[in-house]
Amino acid sequence: MHYLLHLLLILASLPAFSCINMVERVPGVSQEAVEFYAIGHVVVDQDSLLSYIVEKKAACDGQASRACNDMVIAYLFAKQFSSALALSTRLVAKYPQDYNVVITHAAALELNGQVADAIPYMEKAIALNPGSHKGSEWIHLNLLRQRLKGDSGVSPWALIGVELRPDSTLVEPDGVDLKSLVKQVHYQVNDRMYFTPDHDPLFGALVFAYADLLHLNGYRNQAKRAYELAAAYGYTFRPVARIAVAEVVASAEPPAQQLAATPPRSPEPKKNPLAEWVAGIFIGLIVLLVVGFVWKNSRTDP
User: Fold this and answer.
1) Considering only CA atoms, which of 183, 108, 211, 20 is closest in space to residue 30?
2) Nearest one of 202, 177, 175 to 188, comparing CA atoms
């Protein structure tokens, strides 16, 4: 029974592909099994995937049907992004209200570097099916919007819609369903990782936010690995700099003046308990001698 429960937890934690839909229908693409809420990798058998593309290509080059959306997905996993976009453009023109077609077209645009064009399709997909994959697509939309702005100085919590470190210390916010939120971020982190380059601080910021959520939900081992992964993607959280900025804004002083106004404190000398104990006994003996001397003299006749 214990092993069955553990297996169910693993299966429950595996990500659904929120933007790359119906992965199980594309041969050669699978998700590695990982422990509960760990970050898993997509495993792609390129030979099987390319065979599928060759087999289905002729049919989708002709009269494209909804089933050809799977071909767009296959092209994306094969990293044939231009072919994916060419097909998804034809599909979205024919099926503009089909959620799967619209959101896959958004992914094709994004992976071809057309982020500004991808955003309206992502917004439309969310409007068509706001509850898809536990309602996590708004996180991908935040990623796209931030990608368009540039990832310089991005806040991890702007991506997930809640501040978790108001003064650099990790705190549990009031009125936030952390269990639902960690599931949503889990979906998006796993969803985007296959298509993310090795160095991507913006994605690293999302992974860092995910690590914070894991920590708050009690998954400390998974959180540790997620923090390490965030750093590997090039995101670094700098709590000291963050505190300094807050203090400067409050005091309206330039950082250099503020630092100069507060000289470093010298470390306090360490106390020696044994020395204090000996000194206490010595002082106590002196007091006893003085009291005894006074008492003896008071009893001596003049």
Assistant:
1) 20
2) 202
- Which residue carries 């992976």 as its tokens? 111
Output the average pLDDT for the chain: 77
Instruction: Give the architecture-level CATH label for domain 1-129.
Output: Alpha Horseshoe (1.25)
DSSP 97-153: T-HHHHHHHHHHHHHTT-HHHHHHHHHHHHHH-TTHHHHTHHHHHHHHHHHHH-STT
215-262: pLDDT as tens digits: 999 999 999 999 999 999 999 886 533 333 333 233 333 323 322 333
Q: Domain segments of the chain: what residues?
A: 1-129, 155-262
pTM here is 0.70
- The whole-number pLDDT of residue 223 equals 93
Residues 6+ apart with CB under 8 A from 25: 70, 73
Asked if 154 contacts 201 with a C-beta cutoff of 8 angstroms, the reply is yes
In which element (H, E) is residue 53 found?
Answer: helix 46-61
Backbone angles phi, psi at 52, to 5 degrees: -60, -45
DSSP state of 42: E
pLDDT in tens, 100-123: 999 999 999 999 999 999 999 999
